[in-house]
Amino acid sequence: MRSLVVLLYIALWAFVTATYHNPRLPKTITPCHYDLKVQTHIQDIGNSHFEGSVGIVLKVLQNTDQIVLHAQNLTINEPTIKLERLMNSQIISIVSTEFNPSLDYFVIQTSKKLQKASLYYLNIEFAAQLTNTNLGYFIENLEPGNPMKRSWATVTQFERVGARYAFPCFDEPALKATFSVSLGHHKNYTSLSNTEKYGVRYQDHNIDYIWSDFKTTPKMSTYLLAYSLNQFSHISSQTQGPNSIKFRTWVHSDALQNATYVAEVTPKILQYFEKLFEIPFPMSKLDQLIMPTFKFNGMENWGLIVYREASILYNPGDIKQKQEVARLIAHELAHMWWGNLVTMSWWGDVWLKEGFSTYFSAIAVDHVHPEWQYFLESYGELQLDAFDYDDKKRINKVSISHSVVQSNTDEWEKDISVFYHKAASVIGMMSAILGRDAFYDGLRSYLKDNAYGSTTQDQLWNHLQLASDRVGALDKAYNIRTIMESWTLQRGYPCIKVQRNYQTNEVTVSQNHFANDTKSCWWVPLSFTTQSESNFSNTRPRLWLNCNAKGMAEPVTVNLKSSENEWIVFNIQSMGHYRVDYDPRNLKMISDSLLLPDHGGIHFLNRGQLIRDCMYFAKLQPKRLNQTLDLLTYLSKEREYIPWKMFKDNSAKLLAIMSPEATQKFGAEIIQPLYRKVDDLNGGNSDVILRPLIEELACKFKVKKCV
């Protein structure tokens, strides 16, 4: 009886110590390399499945007798698990294994402690069903509306937590490793993975199945691994120069003609990024796989980008769609550096990849299509989207850089505007603060010094500070980390109040949290110009709103060298991520200038900003309605897209303070003059995208009858 009790105690002790409940993996082991073999059996959904093995080279960072890795919805063949010390081929016995389903952990208890600085090889066999969940390794029916015709393709989606559904792994972004992939499949399927295929061999005992072997990847995160089986056709293209990169754009044959633009523009954008970042793309090929019902617009797997068909195929003649296709391609290609080469250490800093990819996608589209003026127009739109997100979610908002314990994909998608659009807007402001030379110098050194590694925003600030110091971009009194963390670690945004004293010719500028949170303070770069200067090209700050030692906001007063009868406009080209609220007299002078033939020389982005902000403040304080309508009246003479887009997207604010009849009447009055000339809107890019917007507004405000 005593021996049974002792054995029971030992068994319970082993079970308890094997359990690991921390939401982050322990820092005792890191993966160095994965040998992944996956055999896929494609049949009907419900019967399709895969099995395989993964061999992981482990480096021990601290002595431990426990290996914790991720696995979810996998059947693991526990008796076949093998652990070997590479130095002497010593086999380490496995005492027990355990699943922790709440955290997706698979815990292995070893018979002896693994030794610090030693390398071990862990081999695990696994199997799972192929489902159509759009997570992990899954299958798509390419003919869902045709029960008589069955056509299948498989693909992976591993960001953020999908890799653990496909094979046991250390599924955190900082735990980078190299991967050697072998795919077993029927010979009638094309196999793709991140790298080039170097060999094909028939499988033993089944001449209809082959193994496709792929070259070892660069060091990368698990969420960037990808593979697919399909029967698609492709278009080939390549970059120019001696070390050209080969591209293949894969899509089902019926849609091949609509993928021509994708194949043509992709090499141009990639080559532009190579020159811009001064770092070559580290692979010899890049495949683009277009799937009919892929959940996301695109996924930046290194060397194998996956797109959703509806988001990437282009119908010639639709300029707005063509712009969105170019932007999406540029976004995913920017990730080859921002996210793939240099990866955030944890998902709380996902803006380091998504914000920069959003920002640089607009710049790249500007490069390949300069006639579109895409950066300026898209920047105004993404900034508005970021403001709208904060305005609608005054509670439970997140900051750009934030604390997140678990990588919950659904929660992340709710706040996507923060990590993409708001982050990109703040990056644009950062560029304006530093100037082009220091900005790019800092970013290039950040990418080069952290290549194939992972970072937090701290490393970014360090490189930008050094770059700023080298060229004297900022006065020594200003610190990049202090400035930028007031934007990345705080929720919301500031509203800037501009109050002029027309007797002393002084202007006082102050800040408030948009939702009146008095505890918040930002370091705000203030660019401005006066009517006599009319300099809308200099976006660098001329003044700062500072935070004192207690973190409280301090106003700033400056004497203007201009007439009291001329306007002043702040936030040149709207490069600062804030709204501007003017005193009534200054706003009236701006409104009068906007009615002039050249709109007083005020930049179209600032015209859009004025519309956006005035309509926002009018909703908060309805007594300002007449001032706002006075400013909006000039729109009847406006021919640029962004001001009209700002009016359209903020028009609901008028309905909040005006009757439907009054709103409809006012809207019709300003739209009608331009709508009468809508057939003349066939000039440049702004006209091409402005025309459908004006027609939409004409319907909305009943200028014309619409179905």
UniProtKB/TrEMBL annotation:
Transmembrane segments: none annotated. PANTHER family: AMINOPEPTIDASE-RELATED (PTHR11533:SF253), PROTEASE M1 ZINC METALLOPROTEASE (PTHR11533). It holds the Pfam family ERAP1_C. InterPro entries: Aminopeptidase_N-like_N, Aminopeptidase_N-like_N_sf, ERAP1-like_C_dom, M1_APN-typ, Peptidase_M1, Peptidase_M1_aminopeptidases, Peptidase_M1_dom, Peptidase_M4/M1_CTD_sf. The gene is LOC115625250. GO terms for molecular function: metalloaminopeptidase activity; peptide binding; zinc ion binding. It comes from the Eukaryota. Residues 31-224 form the Aminopeptidase N-like N-terminal domain. Residues 1-18 form the signal peptide. It is a lipid-anchor; GPI-anchor. The active site is at residue 332. GO terms for cellular component: cytoplasm; extracellular space; plasma membrane; side of membrane. SUPFAM superfamilies: Leukotriene A4 hydrolase N-terminal domain (SSF63737), Metalloproteases ('zincins'), catalytic domain (SSF55486). GO terms for biological process: peptide catabolic process; proteolysis. Keywords: Aminopeptidase, Cell membrane, Glycoprotein, GPI-anchor, Hydrolase, Lipoprotein, Membrane, Metal-binding, Metalloprotease, Protease, Signal, Zinc. Belongs to the peptidase M1 family. This is Aminopeptidase N-like.
